[in-house]
Amino acid sequence: MGIHVGCVVTYEDTFMLLNKQWYVGRALDNRAGGFMIAEVARMLQENKVKLPFGLYITNSVQEEIGLRGAQMIAERIQPDVAIVTDVTHCTHTPMMNKIEQGDVAAGKGPGVTYGPAVQNNLLQRIIDTADANKLPLQRMAASRFTGTDTDAFAYSNQGVPSALISLPLRYMHTTVEMVHKQDVEDCIRLIYETLQNIKPGEDFKYL
Fold first, then answer.
1. Among 181, 31, 173, CA closest to 107
2. Which of 4, 31, 49, 150 stands 20 to 30 A from 144 (CA)?
């Protein structure tokens, strides 16, 4: 394509599809998450899927700067289970440290997180669903908190079984954020299939 080391590259200041496989634009964190859950709702409706439980699909933004939409949603709805989606750093981005922040690559599938706010039985259901549908997964670990709205749901009310499905993203919080098209499609499919693998009345308790 005539591109070599030393070439100067700039991006268009609009949303674009780069090289037929990368979505590029400003504020994909977390408009991508909003798009993915909207696509799940569309697929459920178009495929006439009748879930045996009530499903709320909600969106909140900017938890990093103190907005508490997820906390209010959790208190108002009082859900029995919460599946949260957000972006995560693609640590193959320049100036990211894979030793400190884990090895997560855009284009290699959605990420799932292990951590205190994540209920392991619900997480295992997501992993089993990915395996059954041959969807790629990447694994991440969080120590005290996930840094996403998963924490708000997990610790709300009397505790809500919660899990996090993340979309790897390059250049987070810039005007040229970038996600892989296949990762977006795999995240959507993973949430869609997982919802159909949850039975009414499940509490996901360990005992």
1. 181
2. 31
Three-state SS for 93?
A: coil
Q: Token pair 């979505």 is at which residue? A: 23
Q: Where along the chain do its domains lie?
A: 26-53+69-195
101 φ, ψ (degrees, to nearest 5): -115, 5
Cα distances (angstroms) measured from residue 203 to each of 80, 88, 89, 162: 7, 27, 31, 11
Active-site position among 46, 63, 64, 75: 63
Tokens read off for 120: 């392991």
Is 63 one of the annotated active-site residues of the chain? yes
26-53+69-195 sits in which CATH class?
alpha beta
What are the pLDDT digits (tens) for 50-99? 999 999 999 987 777 777 888 899 999 999 999 999 999 999 998 899 98
Helices 181-195 & 28-46, crossing angle to 10 degrees? 50
